[in-house]
Design a protein that fits this description.
2 copies of one chain form a homodimer.
Chain A lengths: L12 H12 L6 H8 L4 H15 L3 H8 L2 H11 L2 H12 L7 H10 L2 H15 L3 H8 L2 H12 L10 H16 L6 H9 L2 H15 L3 H4 L7 H14 L1 H14 L5 H11 L4 H12 L3 H8 L2 H10 L7
């Protein structure tokens, strides 16, 4: 389900570092070489490259990339090079800052990562920002979105397959009642969404559909423009059908007047090693255009090459 | 600060198992031998004994202890033998059951363990109960206490010493304002208590005292009998001066008409390897009686011997 393509024989970290060093040397930067290497190494390999680079040259690979590259391409390469949990910590921290605030990014990280990964992100956040993730989110968010986001990021959901059908049925009724009453920020509704395991929630939403004839997300569309309701619907999608959620993020990013590069980059970078293949399938089904072609039309230069490389295009070296 | 006393030479786990097996053999049980062994082994050693026992005899030490012992002594030995994180998971689970419900136990575990320990308790809870801890707490608690307890157990507080004094001052003012308004369940008040690091909270409460002339716990005594306010005050004590909180739990347990053995057992068992020495000092200072003497007056038999052994009395073997 990942799209990342590794070379048949992966060079040693020191060989990779030497090549990267060459790509940085002299006037101008060899962006293509950087893509050929970094966009074809997995998380563990990139980590090893970073360590070797620092041991060999006494310098920080991320800092060197930062000074050699620019704009969207720079952001994509930097985010990609970071370890996944550090990257998530970085994205969430950015999402709590005024100018780059985004409840979506916070919700995404909270709902699409495994319980264990989310814990590791929270640990990485401590190490990097000397604060807790929920502390920053609770401080910067407010109102209904805070009421939803703080328990979402603090959850450590059970990950087994066991499902309690009686509970699923009764909680489906609770959810329906709250939605009928338009109590979208009700404590019970938020408790269910933020604490139950993903398989349990799936069963609950299925019962909801069976009992009341509509999907829960449909019933949550009372006011399509309400930002909190949008966040609630997306939370449910992320918890149950993340590939559909991501398809929509990419679709909106591409269809915008002027592409939303931040969103596009985020999806490609964070999902290339996870489920970008499934997201691309969803995209093609929904838009009748292959995702790589759509990206090719909407982006250009090294940035385009980087994204397409992560989608499995081009040669690895 | 722990009171646990280990023998100068600790026997091997197989020797310990052999002795325990002897204590169980024939008519009657040798309770004293059980105490001499188990009450003088630390967490890692008890774990090894459990493993060796199961490997050697194909039986579960906890089950055998359960069938050999009875009443308060049984509960003390079983709780003690469990690994600390499993014990905490057990105590919290018990605290979410109707007949043994206790918001205090949940709050205690959430506020007096380190962030890392609390995570491990949540993992142990998954393994044992096939659910998440916050899921059970959110389901069983309600109202204001739920609003406080769920974020308390879900928190992963930063544990560094860095303190932001400007923030401490502004949040002290926020807390004071909410308390003046009697908004004890206010979102901001709960956000501060449930997300900030312990050193940061300590600074905030100090500013509170400096700025407004009263400690925050004093100002939270508006209605001394209100259960939620009591829980709020205890939360603050657990986060900043846990030994004082525990001293009071023990004092109330002992001074009750008929000792509260569950509370007494819980404090001695969960703190013997942590800070029972400090708690005993607090107890003596507050009551002018040494804690071990008070326990001796209020309890008897093997139960008394077990508690006193954990306080450092008696011979280890």
């Amino acid at each position: 389900m990942a799209t990342l393509k590794l070379p048949s024989t992966v060079p040693s970290p020191s060989e990779d570092c030497e090549q990267l060093r060459k790509a940085f040397a002299g006037w101008g930067t060899n962006e293509e070489l950087i893509i050929k290497i970094l966009a074809h190494r997995n998380g563990a390999q990139r980590k090893k490259i970073q360590e070797t680079y620092s041991e060999t040259y006494g310098e920080d690979l991320l800092k060197d990339l930062d000074s050699e590259l620019s704009s969207d391409f720079q952001r994509a390469v930097l985010l990609w090079t970071l370890e996944p949990v550090e990257r998530d910590a970085y994205l969430v921290n950015e999402a709590t800052k005024k100018l780059t605030a985004s409840n979506w990014v916070i919700m995404e990280v909270a709902c699409t990562r495994s319980s264990h990964q989310l814990l590791c992100v929270r640990q990485a956040y401590h190490a990097k920002y000397k604060k807790s993730m929920e502390e920053d989110i609770a401080y910067h968010a407010s109102g209904n979105s805070r009421k939803l986001l703080v328990p979402l990021v603090s959850a450590f959901r059970y990950e087994g397959d066991e499902v309690n059908m009686t509970l699923a049925k009764s909680e489906a009724k609770t959810l329906h009642q709250k939605i009928c009453d338009k109590s979208y920020n009700d404590d019970e509704l938020i408790r269910i969404l933020t604490t139950r395991s993903k398989p349990q929630l799936n069963a609950t939403f299925n019962h909801y559909n069976d009992l009341f004839g509509n999907t829960i997300t449909k019933d949550l569309k009372a006011d399509p423009e309400d930002e909190y309701l949008k966040l609630l619907r997306s939370t449910i999608k992320c918890l149950t059908v993340p590939e559909k959620y991501y398809e929509k993020v990419v679709r909106l990013a591409i269809n915008k007047l002027g592409t939303d590069e931040r969103a596009l980059t985020r999806v490609v970078i964070t999902r290339a090693e996870v489920d970008l293949q499934r997201i691309a399938e969803e995209y093609q089904r929904r838009n009748s255009v292959p995702l790589d072609r759509a990206i090719g039309v909407d982006t250009s230069g090294d940035y385009e090459k980087m994204l397409l490389a992560l989608m499995g295009h081009g040669d690895a070296c």
